[in-house]
Amino acid sequence: MRVRNLAITASVAALAAAGLTLPLAGTASAASTLKDDYNGDGYRDLAIGNPATNSVTVTFGSASGVGTGRAATLTQDSSGIPGVTEAEDEFGENITSGDVNDDGYADLIVGAPGEKVTGKPSGSVTIVWGGSRGFTAGGKVLNAPADTAGRYGEATTWNDLDDDGSPQLAVISGDNWYYYSGAGENGRVYGLEVDFLPEGVRLDGMVGGNFKVKDGIGFVLYGERADGGAYTAHMNGGAGDYGYQAEVLGEGDDPTATRDAATAGDVNGDGRDDLITGNSSDGAGGKGGSFTVRFGGDREFGAPVTYNQASAGVPGSDEAGDSFGGSVAAGDVTGDGLPDLAVGAPGETVGDVAGAGSATLLKSSAGAFTSGKAWHQETAGVPGVAEAKDSFGSSVRLKDINKNGKADLAAGATGEDIGTTQNAGAVWVLRGTSTGLTSSYATSFNGADFGVGGRDADFGRTLR
C-alpha cells in the first residue's frame, strides 16, 4: 500500500526509541487540566497502542495538529519504565490517561494483559509519568491481583467512582473488575461484586460515564460469553456497591450487545452521558454491522436505537463483511456542543476493493444520526490508495488535537502494507471544522516512522 509517510530526523527517532522527547517550546508549568495532555502545553495528545510490537507511540498535539518532531515511543525496555519486553506481553492493548500523581500532567496508563509475572496471574498495568519534557520520569507497574484467572489490564478507565473529586483507576481482567483507592499510589486494590457475570465470560472492554445522574458514574463491561455470544452489562452505584445493581443490556445474538467497541458522550445534550456500542457482526436485521445508541436517563437507559448502513442518512450499503461498528468514538467535530460519532467499517469494500475499509462521521442532531460522510483512502485529499484488506477504520478516535474547539478524527488501518511490508499498519488524522471533517492538512504515519514497524506490526490497533 502506498501511503505518505511522515519524515522524522535521526535525532528524533533516537529519542523516540528511548522513550524521550525533544525539549518542547512554550510548555506550561504543571497547569493543564486535560486528562491526555502529557507534557502540560495545553494541547491534547494522541496515543497509539501497538500490542503486536509491545509499544505505545504518543504524538504530541499542537496548533498545527500532530507533527513529525513531537513524538515518543515507549516500551518496557525504555529508560525508567518497569519490566522487560516479552513477545506475549501485549503492552499497549489498551490505553487510558489521567493525572495519577496529581502533579498537573497527565500520565499514560497502559494495559498489558499478556504479561507474565512469576507467581501471579497474567497481566499488568503500567503508569508512565508525564511531565514538561514528556516521558522522562519513569513509571510504576501494577500487577494482577491473586483473585483473577488472568489477563489483568484487558481494559482500564480513569473516573471518579465515589464523586469526591479525585478519580480512581478501574481495571478489568478476563473475568473480574477492580478499582484502586485514591490514585492507586498506595497499592490498595479492591475487587468488586461480579456474581452477575456468566460463567466462562471473557471481558474485553469497559467504558465509564454518568449515564444515570442520580446514581453517579456507571460502568459498561463487554465481551463474550463462554458460548461465543456477545455480552454487555451495566453497573451503577458507588465505590462500595458496584456490581450489586448490575443489569444485562444485551447478550447472545442481540444486535444491541457488543463484543467489539463502546464509547460514551452526551449526544442529545441533556446533561447525561449516552452509551454507544458497536456490533460488527450484525446490522439489526441486516448483515454488515451496526451501532446502537442508548440515551442516559433518570435511573434507566432509554430504549436502544440501532443504525446500520441501510438506515436513512447513513452512507454506504449494508453488505456482509463490512464490519460497520467494529470501532466507535464520540467527539464534537463541528463545535456545536453535541458529540458526533465516528464509526469504523474495516471490512468495507471501496469501489471494487474488498476490505479496504472506511470510517464514517455521523453528525448528531439532538441525538439522532441521519447525516454523515464516509472517509477512506480514495476520498479526495486523504493520503494513500485503497487496497485489499487495509482495514481502514479498524480503530477510530475523536479529540481536539489542535485546540480549535473541534474534534479531529484519528483512524487506524492495521492491515496497511508499507512498501513490501505486509500488515505494517498506519494512522491518519483528519481535522474537524464547523461543517465536519476536512482532508485539508490530512496527516498519515506508520510504525516505521517511530521505530516500531515491521510485518504484522498492526500499527494503530488502539487509539486514545
Describe it.
The chain is mainly beta. Helix content is 2%, strand content 33%. The chain is built from 1 helix and 28 strands. The longest helix has 8 residues, at 10-17. It is globular, with a radius of gyration of 20 Å. The model is unreliable at 1-30 (pLDDT under 50).
Helical fraction: under 10%
- pLDDT under 50 segments (min length 5)? 1-30
Share of β-strand residues: 25-35%
Order of helices and strands: HEEEEEEEEEEEEEEEEEEEEEEEEEEEE
| SS elements, strand count | 28
The helix/strand class is mainly beta
pLDDT average, as an integer? Answer: 89
N- and C-termini, Cα separation: 25 Å
- Assign an overall shape: globular
Biggest sheet: strand arrangement:
3-2-1-28
Main beta sheet strand tally, sense and closure: 4 strands, antiparallel
By DSSP (H or I, 4+ residues per run), the number of helices equals 1
Radius of gyration (CA) equals: 20 Å
Which properties best describe this structure?
464 residues; four-stranded antiparallel β-sheet; disordered N terminus; mainly beta; 28 strands
Helix-strand layout with pairing:
Layout: H1 10-17, E1 46-50, E2 55-59, E3 71-74, E4 94-98, E5 107-112, E6 124-128, E7 139-143, E8 155-159, E9 168-172, E10 177-180, E11 189-191, E12 202-209, E13 218-224, E14 230-235, E15 247-252, E16 261-265, E17 274-279, E18 290-294, E19 305-308, E20 327-331, E21 340-345, E22 358-362, E23 372-375, E24 392-399, E25 408-413, E26 426-433, E27 436-446, E28 462-463
Antiparallel strand pairs: 1-2, 1-28, 2-3, 4-5, 5-6, 6-7, 8-9, 9-10, 10-11, 12-13, 13-14, 14-15, 16-17, 17-18, 18-19, 20-21, 21-22, 22-23, 24-25, 25-26, 26-27
